[in-house]
Amino acid sequence: MMSDRENVVLLDGGMGQELRKRSSRPVSPLWSAQVMLDEPHLVTAAHRDFIEACAQVIKLNTYSATPIRLARDGDPSMFEPLYAAALGAAHQAREESDRAVRIAGCLPPLVASYHADSVPDDATCLRDYRRIVERQVDGVDLFVCETMSLIREARAATIAAMESQRPVWVAFAVDDSDGARLRSGESLADAAREVAVLGAERIMVNCSVPEAVTTAMGELATLNVPFGGYANGFISVAPLQPGGTVDKLASRTDLDPAAYAEHAIKWVEQGATAIGGCCEVGPAHIAALAKRLSERG
Predict the structure, then answer these.
(1) At what angle do helices 210-220 and 188-198 cross, to 10 degrees?
(2) In this structure, are residues 280 and 251 in contact, taking their beta carbons and an 8 Å threshold?
(3) How does 196-210 read in b/e, with b if 16+ C-beta sit within 10 Å?
(4) Which residues touch 150 (CB under 8 Å, ≥6 apart)?
(5) In angstroms, rounded to a whole number, what is the distance separating the alpha carbons of residues 42 and 49?
(6) b/e burial code for range 169-186 (CB count within 10 A of at least 16 → b)
(7) pLDDT by residue for the chain (297 residues), tens digit each?
(8) CA-CA distance, 265 to 108, in Å (whole number)?
(9) Which of 5, 39, 201, 275 is buried deepest, with most CB atoms within 10 A?
C-alpha cells in the first residue's frame, strides 16, 4: 500500500447534478449530455469552478453519452458532437484557469447506473468501451472507469482503457448498506484484485453514500494498490431505474461542505491517495476538502 499521504490527488465533484442546479431546462434521461449541446458554456463554467476549488483532475462530461443510452434515449448520431463538445469544454476550462489540471476520460456504465443486471454481454461491453476510448484518447491524460457495479463490467472497461496506453483508474459503486460489496453483491476486494491484475493504476469507490465509502476504504487498504473514494449525496439510489431521471432521487441534508470533508478526511487517514465527490458534491465541497488537506500539510 502507498504510505505517502502527502500526495493526495483531489478530484472534481458531480457534474450532472451541478449542471441541474445551473440550468433552467427540464431534466431528461440524457440530462448532462444534452446540456453539452444546448448550454455548453455551463459545462465549461462548472469545470472551471471545480478547478478554482483546487481540483487537480476533472472528468469529461460524457457520463450519459454511451452508444446504448443514445440509441435508447436520444439519437445515435449525437455521439460524435457530444464527445467533441465535452472535450472542448474541459480543455477550454483548463486553458482559462491556467492550472496544471489533468483531464480524465470517462468510462461509465453503458446502460444504467447501479443496476448490475442491466450490463450487456462481454462482447458488447468491450466493443462500446473501445469506441468511447478511441473518441476520447487524444484529448485526455488518463481514464476513469467509474460507477462499476459488476466485476465483468469493470473488466471490459479496464481492458479497453488499458489499450490506450494512458493511466487507468477504476471506481466501483458499492452497496450503500455494505461497503465491502459491489451493488452486484460481489466482493469489492475481489473486484479490485481483478482490475489491478489488468493494470489499473488506482482503485476507487464512487457514487455510494460516504459511510459505505469509509467501509470500502478499509477493504482497499488491505490490498497493495493505491486507492481512493468519491461519494454521492443521495439518501438512496433505489428509486432510479434504467432510462429514468435523477429528479426521482432525494438529497441528504446532512452533507454540507464541512460535513462531507469530515467523511473524506477519514478516507485519507485510512490511506486513500485520491478523494473527490460524485453526485450532489459541488465546487464548495471540493474547496472545503482542499482547505482540510492544506491544513494537514
Answers:
(1) 60
(2) yes
(3) bebebbbbbbbbbbb
(4) 116, 119, 182, 183, 184, 186
(5) 10
(6) bbbbbbbbeebebbbbeb
(7) 333 445 899 999 999 889 988 988 877 667 667 788 888 999 999 999 999 999 999 999 999 999 999 999 888 999 999 999 999 999 999 999 999 999 999 999 999 999 999 999 999 999 999 999 999 999 999 999 999 999 999 999 999 999 999 999 999 999 999 999 999 999 999 999 999 999 999 999 999 999 999 999 999 999 999 999 999 987 766 656 666 556 666 788 899 999 999 999 999 999 999 999 999 999 999 999 999 999 987
(8) 26
(9) 275
Q: What amino acid occupies position 8?
A: V
Check residue 262 and report its DSSP letter. Answer: H
Contact 179, 188 (CB under 8 A): yes
Number of neighbouring beta carbons within 10 Å of residue 26:
9
Residues with Cβ within 8 Å of residue 176, at least 6 apart in sequence: 208, 209, 211, 212, 236, 237
Euclidean distance between CA atoms 286 and 205, whole angstroms = 17
Both ends of the chain: CA-CA distance in Å? 21
Residue entry with cell 467523511: 263
The one-character DSSP state at 201 is: S
In 3D space, the residue among 131, 92, 95 whose CA is nearest the CA of residue 110 turns out to be 131
| CA dist., res. 293 & res. 8, Å (int) | 8
Q: Are 153 and 119 in contact (CB under 8 A)?
A: yes
